[in-house]
């Protein structure tokens, strides 16, 4: 009995010491570089918007951010890497609503054995809208023009792939507006989807901003209010449609179990970076069609859950594999 008591006591003390050490480590955080996993190829818009913050966040935290690119399987490769990392704040994940939410809900992300509950939300750093675009010389001057035509003949629309945010949103919109259009998915990306419209292969493109939209006419933006990037373009809600979809928020996550003190320090660094350098970051972000914003961990989780609910409901209506 005495021996069992000794073993129990030693185990309890060791666990307590480990907990104290972890708490002290959290209070000292960070003491070395922080690896930020970007689950896309380098050089894209996500890479660019991160670099708008990089030196400012490094100054606030007192340690460098080291970007590591792990593209593959629509964000699954990088996401799984962070999910399985130690929850100590030294391995973080850059995600969007599309890569965090859609792969686990659909067959688009084979091997996506995770949900957002496997991560600790930190903050958003930007968002961008979803546009409905036609050629500048298109006979469809307004969304009403397009809808009228789509009710009398089969029009085609292009997106960046099956069960992407653009695909799901267009199907939800067309269902409410009372028309059906032929989907033309381009898995090579939004630029290819827009090029299809420029080349006359599709009547409309539903895409996020890429820079090429300057060559097209934007009929509407898929959110409740107008976009700061194109304030002259009406929103779907303004046009009388009830589709409730958050913009595509780009965000930062840590492995589940990361101490709140560490999460709050990182969020605070991004918030401070934007508050103290708002003009500079905003101007640089507009160059890559992003709008900077730093929602808190709680706000981030709220908008992602709202987006997840929207996607899941619409995927089920489409006969998809939402779980």
Please specify the SSE layout and strand pairing:
Elements: H1 2-28, E1 34-38, H2 45-61, E2 65-69, H3 76-83, E3 91-96, H4 97-105, E4 119-128, E5 131-135, H5 143-150, E6 156-159, H6 165-177, E7 182-185, H7 190-198, E8 204-207, E9 216-221, E10 248-255, H8 260-276, H9 278-286, E11 291-292, H10 297-317
Parallel strand pairs: 1-2, 1-3, 6-7, 6-8
Antiparallel strand pairs: 3-10, 4-10, 4-11, 5-8, 5-9
In short:
The protein is an alpha/beta fold.
- Level-1 CATH class name of the largest domain: Alpha Beta
Which stretches are low in confidence, meaning pLDDT under 50 for 5 or more residues running?
17-22
Give the distance, in angstroms, between the N- and C-terminal Cα atoms.
51 Å
Radius of gyration, taken over Cα atoms and rounded to an integer in Å: 22 Å
What is the CATH topology descriptor of the largest domain? D-Maltodextrin-Binding Protein, domain 2
What structural class do you assign from the helix and strand content?
alpha/beta
Total count of strands: 11
Query: From the 3D coordinates, which CATH architecture of the largest domain would you assign?
Result: 3-Layer(aba) Sandwich
What is the typical, i.e. mean, pLDDT? 88
Q: What is the tally of helical segments?
A: 10
The portion of residues assigned to helices is 40-55%
Q: How many individual domains?
A: 3
Instruction: Please list the strands of the largest sheet in the order they lie side by side.
Output: 2-1-3-10-4-11
Series of H and E elements = HEHEHEHEEHEHEHEEEHHEH
DSSP strand content = 15-25%
Fourth CATH level, the homologous superfamily of the largest domain? Bordetella uptake gene, domain 1
Q: Main sheet?
A: 6 strands, mixed
